[in-house]
């Protein structure tokens, strides 16, 4: 048997954690053939709950789950890990924007960035789920710099990508497996820009542009993006309003999709949305953790180049970029650093 991958889930006693750990343990992310050791981290007051989750995972009797470790300190959590799902953070409540969590959550990611640098493998790959996800990932990468390359850090916009793909499928009268190349640009926040102008739909066996498959351009420029919040941009707030808890099942599934594709690669001709450090593509300031369309091969992502952006798209991308720059400066101040 190959040596197991060591996979850390932080916030493992929380609601996303509860859905996520089973999906990882049963092979949805790294494949059913890959042995896994799951490391579950939460804060000390959650130790008993965490132990309950550990017991349940053991009771699932999964063939390739070779170990489950429940820990409440960063050294034990981060030592020698291969992948980190950084979920543990405060969720927003009704009426809040995700950036309202910045001051409370950013310090967690400063500390975990330093722990990654000290204890993790230099090849460790990280997805930040805890909100505000892009800015938390920026801070985490900053404090791990010198040990773990910035390109190993990402934030999750796959949930928005999945939400957008599902809406296009419903409007086009197909199942979601027939939709590809939707793009989420920018921040995982209400300024994100869900863009279908490069998306494709397989309708009755032939591939057509999503715009013609949907057949409703007015809806694509308004209702699809945010009609009283029920579609993509503000979907998270609507879930909180209905469930009185933030999305968990769909968030866990999206985190699995994100790491699955990073590990296994994207199919030829397809791209997915992932918030990664900008290299200046599309004029986005370097280093900002920005959601782009990416292709992935051999564990390395590449930003899709050369997509044409019309004035509508450029305007939307400018708004989300401005918000990310403001969040970055606020986060640096909260960490006691000067602005960039
Ligand atoms: N990026 C996305 O698309 C997306 C989607 C859904 C939720 N989220 C975010 O994910 C985060 C978790 O959501 P949830 O619903 O699971 O929340 P939750 O409150 O149910 O669970 C969070 C868990 O994190 C733990 N935690 C807090 N500080 C920690 C630390 N320093 N180290 C380890 N664990 C810590 C808490 O004790 C708790 O068990 C929130 O910030 C939420 O807003 C992001
Ligand atoms: O909206 C939230 O606060 C939770 C999450 O980020 C989501 O998009 O559902």
What's the overall average pLDDT, rounded? 94
Strand order, biggest sheet? 3-2-1-4-5-6
Range of strand content = 15-25%
Q: Give the tally of structural domains.
A: 2
Overall radius of gyration: 19 Å
Shape: globular
Number of strands: 14
Spell out the helices and strands N to C: EHEHEHEHEHEHEEEEEHHHHHEEEH
Q: List low-confidence stretches.
A: none
- So what's the CATH class of the largest domain? Alpha Beta
Distance between the termini: 47 Å
Largest sheet: 6 strands, parallel
CATH fold-level name of the largest domain: L-2-Hydroxyisocaproate Dehydrogenase, Chain A, domain 2
Q: Tally the helices: what do you get? A: 12
CATH superfamily of the largest domain: Lactate dehydrogenase/glycoside hydrolase, family 4, C-terminal
CATH 2nd-level architecture of the largest domain: Alpha-Beta Complex
**Secondary-structure content class:** alpha/beta
GO molecular function, one term: L-malate dehydrogenase (NAD+) activity
Protein name: Malate dehydrogenase
InterPro entries: L-lactate/malate_DH, Lactate/malate_DH_C, Lactate/malate_DH_N, Lactate_DH/Glyco_Ohase_4_C, Malate_DH_AS, Malate_DH_NAD-dep_euk, Malate_DH_type2, NAD(P)-bd_dom_sf
Family: Belongs to the LDH/MDH superfamily. MDH type 2 family.
């Amino acid at each position: 048997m190959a040596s197991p991958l060591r996979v850390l889930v932080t916030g493992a006693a929380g609601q996303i954690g509860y859905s996520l750990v089973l999906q990882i343990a049963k092979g949805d992310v790294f494949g059913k053939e890959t042995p896994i050791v799951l490391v579950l981290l939460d804060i000390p007051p959650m130790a008993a709950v965490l132990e309950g989750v550990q017991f349940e995972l053991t009771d699932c009797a999964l063939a390739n789950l070779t170990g489950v470790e429940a820990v409440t300190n960063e050294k034990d959590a981060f030592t020698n890990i291969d992948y980190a799902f950084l979920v543990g953070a405060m969720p927003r409540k009704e009426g809040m924007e995700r950036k309202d969590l910045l001051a409370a959550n950013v310090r967690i990611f400063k500390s975990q960035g330093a722990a990654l640098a000290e204890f993790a493998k230099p090849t460790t790959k990280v997805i930040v789920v805890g909100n505000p996800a892009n800015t938390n990932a920026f801070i985490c990468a900053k404090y791990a710099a010198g040990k773990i390359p910035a390109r190993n850090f990402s934030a999750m916009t796959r949930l928005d990508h999945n939400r957008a793909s599902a809406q296009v499928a419903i409007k086009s009268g197909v199942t979601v497996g027939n939709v590809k190349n939707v793009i989420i640009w920018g921040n995982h926040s209400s300024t994100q820009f869900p863009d279908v102008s490069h998306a494709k739909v397989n309708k009755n066996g032939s591939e057509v542009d999503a715009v013609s498959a949907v057949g409703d351009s007015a809806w694509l420029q308004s209702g699809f993006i945010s009609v009283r919040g029920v579609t993509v941009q503000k979907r998270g707030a609507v879930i909180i309003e209905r469930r009185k808890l933030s999305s968990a099942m769909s968030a866990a599934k999206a985190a699995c999709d994100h790491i699955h594709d990073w590990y296994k690669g994207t199919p030829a001709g397809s791209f997915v949305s992932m918030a990664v450090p900008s290299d200046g593509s599309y004029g986005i300031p370097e280093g900002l953790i920005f959601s782009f369309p990416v292709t992935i091969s051999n564990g390395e992502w590449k930003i899709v180049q050369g997509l044409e952006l019309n004035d509508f798209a450029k305007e939307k991308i400018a708004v989300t970029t401005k918000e990310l720059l403001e969040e970055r400066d606020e986060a640096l101040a909260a960490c006691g650093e000067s602005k960039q």
